[in-house]
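ligand=NDP
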Amino acid sequence: MANRRWILRTRPEGDISEGDLELIEVAIPDLDEGEILVRNIYLSVDPTNRIWMSDIDAYMPPVEVGEPMRGRTWGTVIKSRHEGFRAGDVVTGGLIWEEYSVLRHAEAVPMNLGLPLEAFTSVLGPAGMTAFWGLSDIGKPRPGETLVVSAAAGATGSVAGQIGKIMGCRVVGVAGGSLKCGYVTEQLGFDACVDHRAGNLEEQLRQACPEGIDVDFENVGGDVMDAVLGMVNNHARVVLCGLISTYNREGDWWSPRRFRNLLFRRVSMQGLIITDYFPRFAEALPVMADWVGQGRISYRVDVVEGITNAPRALARIFDGNNMGKQLVKLSPAPSDIQP
Ligand code: NDP
């Protein structure tokens, strides 16, 4: 049995191009005592993949040229040499873009699926946890405040906005295109959504946020963040979660044009890296699972089929073609085989 995996062939310059990544075949080794073999079902592709492809001083070391691409997987155990795991168990823990993963038992986290696996890849996975901790620990919105969330139809933003509604805020999304804005207001229950592709963003935001902005859940940076910083109220909080509009830039990335408003309006801005919160996932999970179970938070996954399409799935995120959590499906999911 062979395993296919993606490796970094060259570091991209600007947008990712064909040839930056290469699909190779590797043998699956025999298992040592304490190891399990997992057939991966879903691979998560994320904006941070682009950060890891560059040789920059980021929050974790880059992927080295010639090394496998890094990314979380969820899959089914097909062989086990550890008493804690049996064939058929669903686990997460793989961190490579590949079809099969050999994991040490300590690396594998069993999934007790009370909800569909897709929920664990999105709203109950790193994206949902980022939304939860970004708001509860940094943004701390109060009822009646205005919360703006950029990339609002995406994996993280869609959850952040819905949590903001539960916390009693007026929630305004920023998304690209009328289809996404319709999804954000009609399906996710945001109070308004402005279309950053339609032009006149500042005017649109002014109309959507008549009382200014108290919390910015920032996923995008660039013109979107500049427009938001132009409208922040005194003592506003910026949850600096992501700057996707800058990840394909070379050299000095980007700085906000309205930086001085942080001074004039006494704004606090704090960066968030979700790995810091891994030890606290267990606190957030039951709360979030309840909200999902009660239908107070909905989620959506955007699935591209097959390992060969993983780079295409990553490109979708940067083109804004994804709606919800971008996944690559590598083998059948439990929901495919249940009656
Ligand atoms: P999404 O599912 O939100 O997909 C990314 C979206 O970003 C696209 O769909 C697109 O939406 C928008 N986008 C892409 N390029 C641009 C651009 N140039 N200008 C404006 N919008 C753009 O991805 P995630 O939820 O996974 O990630 C969202 C952000 O959160 C990213 O910045 C990511 O790095 C960050 N993040 C940070 C984490 C942390 O630990 N700090 C953890 C998880 C995510 P549209 O069509 O609406 O423009």
